[in-house]
Design brief:
This protein is an alpha+beta fold and about 525 residues long. It is built from eleven helices and 15 strands. Strands 13-9-11-12-15-14 form a six-stranded mixed beta sheet. Strands 4-3-7-6-5 form a five-stranded antiparallel beta sheet, covered by helices on one side. A two-stranded antiparallel sheet has the order 1-2. Strand 6 and strand 7 form a beta hairpin. Helix 4 packs antiparallel against helix 5. The radius of gyration is 50 Å and the shape is rod-shaped.
Amino acid sequence: MAVAVAAVVLVGGAVVLATALAYGRHAAREAYDRLLVGAASDIAESITIRDGTPEVDMPVSAFELLSLARKDRIAYRVIDRAGRTLTGDAAAPAPETLRDLSLYSGAFGDEPARYAAVVRRFAERGYSGPVQIIVGHTLRARQELARDIAQNALAVLGAAGAAIALFASLAVASAMRPLTDIGAALARRDPTDLTPLRAPAPREIAALRDALNAFMARLDRQLRANRDLISNAAHQLRTPLAAIRVQLEAAADDPDPARKEALLTRVHERSRAYGRLLDQLLSQGMVLHRADAIAKERMDLRDAALEIYEQSDIEVFATGLRLRLDLPDDPVTVEGDLLSLTEAGKNLLTNALRHGTPPIALGVARTGGEARLWVRDAGPGPAPGVLKRIGDRFARDGLSRDGGAPGGVPHTSSSAAGRSEGSGSMASDAVEPKVGGSTDRVSPTAASPDGACPADAPPCGATPGGAPRGGGAPQTTGAAMGGGLGLSIAQTVADNHGGRLSHGTDAAGFEIAMILPVAPA
């Protein structure tokens, strides 16, 4: 910083010195030109006409003026109308044009010189015409005056430059001190301390401090998300792992084939629930990471609904339900992350498929400045106590169908489920979705057109796990009956997009929706 300030002062000093030297030359020329004009004018005033001939009586004042240039050689010349030199040095050069006043450069022997020519005009009986007076001197005094002006300017500039450099260094050191304080504060911190910096700073450095605080806030959110993920995994996976191990050991030691088969069936059910929970944990980690790592873009919310619809094959197949898609004709534009919104919507839909009352519908709507990605089922909705826990992680509802996921987690979808083997085989059995209006997707295991159940399907109104569907107590829980991580993921995505989760019950059934702000035009 000191080198930069010194460089600026030196460059500025060179510019100022050149300017001062040019100014000194100009000032010296102006001053000594006035001396020449004054001397020439004095000589012109002393000219008289006698017997038709100009006569010159050289005044003392003219020589006094010329003597102010002490080191210079002086020349003068008086010329009549015929071009004859009346007095003075005939070698003194005359101007090219006869004018009342002329200032020009010439030579004085082997030295450069400066001349002034003044014309006095006479109109008398004996003499009518001009008389030209030329006065000049060499340039020594002018050059000395220019050097004096430049030297004085240089001295002043040097002193001013030193003072500027000193005060600039002090100002820079004072302005940069907050950077040192910020660096020292960061160096003293524990690696896990990501609280905001509070050190005061000028506006320019405050911008850096605020940027650091924002960066540390993002790191803190990521660290807390990682800690939550690890905590959730440790809390939710330890018990099912222990249960699976105990049941496998019991099955290995049990000589009764029937009991062994029952234990192995139970282990299989628990491992499936365990896999779903792992998928949810990974989905939660992905959503939390993308909240800060991925920039949001303008997108049509209908695209997210179509993605959810296309990735719902396996869940529709597993539950044997009909899924209806309702989309508006006009785009519903939001600022968002398509992958996160799709993941959140899949969790809402899967809760409806597993815990809601058919028919199930998925759709998008716009109301004023808000966009809605909604899922609806025909049930009356969960109890008020359950509604209060919507969005909480691992909330227990006691109504999980097929034995419950580990830790009481209802069975919710994940990105891994949508990509599992066999999802592509459902394309030929589903109706192609379209934008605008509604579309139905029916599982191949759903009831046949005549109302009878397929021979190889579970009983009508039952899930593959054997739980009753349509009329049983679980069907009154509504689309949002699943707690666990599914709705927590949806809540997190809604929060990250500046929105919220909304739910309500009317005559048509229970609806849960993500409410997002519409992107400005």
